[in-house]
Amino acid sequence: MAVIMHVDFPHKDIWEKEMATQMKELAESINKEPGFIWKFWTESKKDNMAGGVYMFDSREHAENYLKMHSARLKEYGYSDIRGKVFEINEELSKICKAPF
């Protein structure tokens, strides 16, 4: 069963186009992760936060990715990383035009 994962963390450095340029290689590598379906990259200059909303094909794949990604973010110097995995109510989500 597909799941959604939300990750966020404090971020102050780069935004928008600059982030897209600097993170392009990382974005391409995420496409190769087991069970990965899609990701929305999120950023809020107002709140100094960045992160993403992901869809994976299983809780196991999402949790494995979250563990690896949290460690990678810590290596990049980030802290206070929050991540949660949620099951999806597909019936209600389809009514609301979720991108399945």
Automatic annotation (TrEMBL):
Oxidoreductase among keywords: yes
Pfam families in UniProt: ydhR
Oxidoreductase keyword on record: yes
Stored NCBIfam families: PRK11118.1
Keywords: Monooxygenase, Oxidoreductase
One GO molecular-function entry: monooxygenase activity
Protein name as catalogued: Monooxygenase
